[in-house]
Every structure is written in structure tokens, then in C-alpha cells.
Amino acid sequence: MRNHHILVVICALAVFVAGCHKKSKALEPLPDVPSTDFSAPEPAEMKQTEDSGVIDMDALSRQFQSIFFDYNRFDIRDDQTPALQANANILRNNPVVSVTLEGHCDERGTEEYNLALGERRAKAVKDYLVSLGIAPERIQTISYGESRPFAFGHNEDSWQENRRAQSVVLKMQ
Questions:
Q1: Computed from CA positions of residues 27, 33, 39, 40, in that sequence, does the dihedral angle turn out positive or negative?
Q2: How far is 139 from 101, CA to CA, in rounded Å?
Q3: 53: alpha, beta or left, given left = phi > 0 and alpha = psi -120 to 50?
Q4: Are 51 and 99 within 8 A, CB to CB?
Q5: Spatial contact of 98 and 140, defined as CB atoms under 8 Å apart
Q6: What 3-state class would DSSP assign to 173?
Q7: Residue 119 belongs to what H/E stretch?
Q8: Which of 31, 96, 127, 165 has the greatest count of CB atoms below 10 A from its CB?
Q9: At what angle do helices 111-131 and 81-93 cross, to 10 degrees?
Q10: 3-state class of 22 per DSSP?
Q11: C-alpha angle 73/161/142, rounded to 5°?
Q12: Helix count (H) and strand count (E) of the chain?
């Protein structure tokens, strides 16, 4: 009886595989492509053009720089102002784009404390961008505290990478 069940399962699997094989399409060879320089191009600021109206959101997102913070702090460090100014320039050049600023923390501290600290970090970045002329309604904030680490180590190098505010690009309607 047991062998009968195994045989039924094997037969059902064979029928399934045969059916999948019939549904699959044969791969066609790729056309000859001339050799190309595969080095990554330097990112260029994206602008919405009147004729196309298209913004490459992924390319634009990669241009934004994360802003890093000291341990247990949410004030903007002097070494982070060039990155903030660059982020403001991207927003100025793309007026239909808005961002969500995500506040992040390292793993030290309680969950509640880190959520509050992450919110303060995101708000500090928003306030700085607003001081540079970016409309506040184009910037949302959210805190993830320690729940979305960038680096997974348990040392100062990893913790420094996780103490950040990160921009997520949204296109406004």
C-alpha cells in the first residue's frame, strides 16, 4: 500500500514536469552586440523635461547621500553639510520630486528610545533642507530606529553606518 502511494506521487510529479516542459518556450540566441564600455557612468542630476515628463526614480534615488550622526546625537555634524547641500540641489533641480527621510539608529538603546532618536535625526535633516529653501511639504519623515540596519556588525564601524538619515525618493502627483 505504501509503495502504491509513492508510485502515485512519482507519476503525478512526472505529469507535472512534462506539462511544465511543454509550456516553456525555447530560448532564442541573443543577437550579436558590438563591444561596449561597461564602466559605470557618473551620475547626472535628473530633471523632468517638459516634453518627456519622465524621471528615472532609481537613478535619482542613488544620487541622494545619507547623513550620518554621532552616538546618541541628532544635531547635524559639520562634515555632513556638503552632503545636505548636494541633496538640496537634487531637490531644487527636480521640483516634482519629494522625499521621505528615514531616521535610523544603531542597535544600542531601547527600541522606544531609538525610534524617538531616529525621528529627531530625520527632523533635523528636514529642518536643514527647509533652511536651504526646500518646501517643507516635499519632505516627510519616519523613524525606523534600529530595525533596519545597513551594517550588521556589532562594533563602532557598523554602528556608525547605522546612525543615519536616508532619503527615499517619491514622485509628487
A1: negative
A2: 7
A3: left
A4: no
A5: yes
A6: coil
A7: helix 111-131
A8: 165
A9: 60
A10: helix
A11: 60
A12: 5, 4
68: phi then psi, degrees, rounded to nearest 5: -105, 150
Local structure of residue 40 (DSSP, 8 states): P
Q: What CA–CA distance (Å, rounded) separates 99 from 169?
A: 5
The one-digit pLDDT tens for each residue of the chain (173 residues) are 555 445 444 544 444 444 444 443 343 444 443 443 433 333 334 444 444 566 778 888 899 999 999 999 999 999 999 999 999 999 999 999 999 999 999 999 999 999 999 999 999 999 999 999 999 999 999 999 999 989 898 988 888 999 999 999 987 65
Identify the CA nearest to 107 among candidates 153, 168, 167.
153
Sign of CA dihedral 105, 106, 112, 117: negative
Residue 46 in 3-state DSSP? coil
The neighbouring-strand residues paired with 166 are: 102
Instruction: Take residue 5 and report the three cell numbers written for it.
Output: 502511494
Query: In 3D, which of 102, 103, 105, 83 has the Cα closest to residue 159?
Result: 105
Residue with cell 535625526: 121
Cell of 8: 502515485
